[in-house]
Write a structure and sequence with these properties.
single chain
Length: 94
Amino acid sequence: MIEIMLMTSIALFGVAIAIALFRIVFGPSLPDRVIALDMIGVNLVSGIAIISVMLRTKAFLEVILILAVLTFISTIAFSKYIERGVIIERKRDS
């Protein structure tokens, strides 16, 4: 029973990623695309966690952590770019 639920959840995460990809390609604005990228990252982390449970291993925990951190940092960078137009501000003396 649990295996069926895990397989169903992986399939639904795949559908959610496909919908987010559609939003990235045909999104009306840049903030919508950034949110869709963040949604893909969260769904990938969740899918990898479910695969880790299905395989009964802890080998994917580092992958989950690294992917979550990279997704968070990229979302912050895109948000800063949308807000200010630059990601890293440099102060110039002249």
